[in-house]
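2 proteins. here.
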Amino acid sequence: MKKLVKSVTMHDSKHHLGLQVVDILTGAVNSGYLKYLNPRLELSVAKELAFERMAALLGWDVFHYDTFPNKDFNIWHFPQEMRAMPGSKSIRPDYNVPLVKREELS
């Protein structure tokens, strides 16, 4: 059964946990790709650590890649000419990646 999006409404992500997750993932994907385009780009310690852990959760070395199409979690870069740069990778989840600790942020 094919479902089409019939409308879109604006919501403040502060009030919707799901939108907060989407905001975080979108920001991480965009910032990770910016780091690929400009390796000397300096981001906050928290962001750098988040990218490192998110990449590890996916089984990747860095958070720069597109995913190969799959049913669970997809990352695609836009515009389409940027896809597969620097490459596409399969997801190999690693749920043993440690949580970020406060002392790691200082």
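next one coming up
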Amino acid sequence: MSSEPQLSGRRIQVIGVTGAGKSTFARRLGQELSIPVCELDSLFHKSRAGGALSEDDARRSVQVLVESNDEWILDGNHWVQLKDVSYNKATDIIWIDTPLPLTLWRVITRTVWV
């Protein structure tokens, strides 16, 4: 018998290259399914207050979210930091695969016009 509790609900990891549209897709999916969404880049790279959390603090934040919610959507790649925190608990992993010209356009326009 497993010592880990049985999980229920949808636990979705949205991954893809920079500029693929992960955050937009995850937000829309979260609204449609009424599931909380966590944008991993905001934890690991930048916060709304201006600075990034330490890698350990960001990892702990994700771990708290994953362990305290039956359903969640995580958007971002961060495999190295989260392989044992969220990926092994995900019910679905969605790979956003956009054409290279579209991805480049998104990255360039986001960088130039932000």
